[in-house]
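hey can u check if this looks right to u? its 151 residues, i copy pasted from the old doc so theres a chance i mangled smth
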Amino acid sequence: MNREAIEESLNKLRKHGVRITPQREAVLQYLVQSSEHPTADEIYKDLAPKFPKISVATVYNNLRLLTRLGIVEEMSYGDNSSRFDFAETKHYHAVCERCGRIVDVFFPDFDQVDTVAENLTGFQVSGHRLEVYGLCPQCQAELAADQKIAN
């Protein structure tokens, strides 16, 4: 699936007249293979050893391009750095309020949300975004352990 997703994305770039550079392909591959929703700086730090001449600006420019073409989704949460997610499959996100971890949530009726909203409001819906907030299992366990120690 990953190689197929990368090839489809590369073809989309070519259709838009975008040159495929090794750095651009590396950023794309990184996002396709990552489930961590990385920041641009995290991508840069991970790619720099393999691409010594890559710059933070190159990573940011490629992320902007991939976002503009709908290949990547930029996620901004408050004052934190933007995080990036490969946008092949539509999904929602669960965000930990304590550590900031983001987990993909797949909902089978994703596309029906737009239709229901249009029917209920009369809006011509162009899209939607939903995040669920709470505590991830690791933070729950840490807080429970802290609570035990405090008692």
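The chain has two domains: 2-86, 92-150.
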